[in-house]
Automatic annotation (TrEMBL):
Residues 131-230 bind DNA. This is Response regulator. It comes from the Bacteria. Residues 7-120 form the Response regulatory domain.
Length: 237
């Protein structure tokens, strides 16, 4: 997808905030459609099929997450939640409901634009990864052969470590919640065992990261989950 001219749906009940967001997006060449309620948002989304949605959760008619749930029945457009709700539980709920990213108000225009660009570039990663070989610095992951090497030397990963890496790569540059990782790697019966997940992440970082204590690739989203960062723009925003 070309980022230039992408259509972005702004879902925000405060007119002043909508004006600010509209000005930022139009100045960068995006097209914009707006909604002030959850009902309007679902209608606009069905009418215009936006490339990306910026969604406030505090809407006057319904919780903003109902928009995510409704859209996910037919749309794969990235949804970035923009909310004053900064509690970890709110982030986890939004991401588990189908949102792709979460920004806490207030945020900078540069950070917002970086998240938008990254989301648009990685829409294809909702489907199986097309490039079977992924490079993480001197680490190479060959998904077709299920082989991981570092500087040409094969790294042994346990089946669970490899599956964790595969899931993170499939959702690269997006937050993957603890629940989602546990469900996909160990199954629904393990969806609350976050301490178990942390142990595996430590060993995976020891094998993949140049400096495990200061991870470059597998980033912790405190209280929420993890993000495998391929796009350097996220690091500089």
């Amino acid at each position: 997808m070309s980022e230039s001219g992408a259509l972005i749906l702004i879902v925000e009940d405060e007119a002043s905030v909508r004006r600010s967001l509209r000005a930022i997006l139009l100045d960068c060449g995006f097209r914009v459609v707006e909604a002030g309620t959850a009902a309007e948002a679902v209608q606009r989304a069905s009418e215009h099929n936006p490339d990306l949605v910026l969604l406030d959760l505090g809407l006057p008619d319904r919780d903003g997450l109902t928009v995510v749930t409704a859209m996910r029945a037919w749309s794969l457009a990235p949804v970035i939640v923009l909310s004053a709700r900064g509690q970890e539980g709110d982030k986890v709920t939004a991401l588990d409901s189908g949102a792709d990213d979460y920004l806490i108000k207030p945020f900078s225009a540069n950070e917002l634009l970086a998240r938008i660009r990254v989301a648009l570039r990685h829409v294809a990663l909702r489907t199986p990864i097309r490039d079977p070989v992924i490079d993480l610095g001197d680490v190479r992951v060959d998904l077709s052969r299920r082989v991981v090497t570092r500087s040409g030397q094969e790294i042994h990963l346990t089946p669970h470590e490899y599956k964790l890496l595969e899931v993170l790569l499939r959702h690269a540059d997006r937050v993957v919640t603890h629940r989602q990782l546990l469900n996909e790697v160990w199954g629904p019966g393990h969806s609350t065992e976050t301490r178990y997940l942390r142990v595996y992440m430590v060993t995976l970082r020891q094998k993949l990261e140049p400096v495990p204590g200061r991870p470059r690739w597998i980033i912790t989203e405190p209280g929420v989950g993890y993000r495998l960062r391929l796009d350097r723009e996220l690091a500089s925003s």
